[in-house]
Structures are given as structure tokens and as C-alpha cells.
Design brief:
By secondary structure, the protein is α/β, with parallel strands linked by helices. Helix content is 25%, strand content 37%. The protein is built from three helices and eight strands. The strands form two sheets. It has a four-stranded mixed β-sheet, covered by helices on one side. A four-stranded mixed β-sheet has the order 5-8-7-6, with helices on one face. It is globular, with a radius of gyration of 16 Å. 20% of the residues are buried.
Length: 137
């Protein structure tokens, strides 16, 4: 039996800002952009990988949530403490870091060697999701 990761989801609060960040800054391909009742789900991924893909999803779109729960989720996202995170990898951490800085991305940590054996940096995307980027050979 073979099992793979096909999609993963991150919330977005501004589809156009998220699209610009993931497509224009990170260079991801847009694989799908679906609107429904004023909301958008945008599927992106690295141009040289068919899977997994990242689905940027409207937060609190679940119809089972109360208005109070939706407000709480949006407040947590606005503070950057919703808990959504993604780790990416690149063979040119310094180059990607510069590109992200030049784009105005929210820097949390400059490239550094971690005591657990990786060199990485950290940013927040336009919705406040944590992005760590590891350097790989």
C-alpha cells in the first residue's frame, strides 16, 4: 500500500494578498481558484511538483460553526496565533530570504543554524500563518 499527502490547507483572510504572496513571491503555480458564495479556495503548489498542493481556504467556512466561533477564529488569525504553519524547503535559503524581504513579507527569524541540525528562517504569510523555510542540499 502506498500513501501520500495530496493536499494541505492554510486559512487566508485576503485571497488576493495570499495569491500574490504564494504565486508572485514564492513562485507557486495556481492549480485552481474556486469561488463560492463570496469565498475563494485557491490551490497552489511548486511548479515542478504535482503533489502535495496547498489549498488556501477561507477561515471558518464550516457551516457548523457559530458566529462566536467564527469571530474567535478570525481574531486568532489576526494575532498570528491560529496555529496554522507550513515548512518549506529550498536549496538557496539566502536568495529566497532576500526575495521575501524585498516583497515586504513579515520576517520572524533571519536565516540561522538551529541546534537541531537545520538552517532555516521564518516568516508570516499575509494571513499570519507561520512559514518556516529549511535549507536543503
Amino acid at each position: 500500500m502506498n500513501i501520500t499527502i495530496h493536499y494541505t490547507f492554510l486559512p487566508h483572510t485576503d485571497p488576493d494578498a495570499s495569491l500574490a504572496f504564494y504565486r508572485d513571491t514564492l513562485g507557486f503555480d495556481v492549480r485552481n481558484d474556486v469561488g463560492y458564495e463570496g469565498m475563494r479556495w485557491i490551490t497552489v503548489g511548486p511548479p515542478d511538483q504535482a503533489a502535495p498542493a496547498l489549498v488556501l481556504t477561507p477561515p471558518a467556512a464550516d457551516p457548523g460553526l457559530s458566529d462566536d466561533e467564527r469571530r474567535t477564529i478570525l481574531e486568532l488569525i489576526a494575532k498570528g496565533s491560529y496555529g496554522a504553519a507550513l515548512t518549506l524547503a529550498t536549496d538557496d535559503l539566502d536568495g529566497l530570504f532576500k526575495k521575501l524581504v524585498d516583497s515586504g513579507a513579515d520576517v520572524l527569524q533571519e536565516p540561522m543554524d538551529q541546534p537541531y541540525g537545520v538552517r532555516d528562517c521564518a516568516f508570516r504569510d499575509p494571513a499570519g500563518n507561520l512559514l518556516r523555510i529549511n535549507e536543503v542540499a
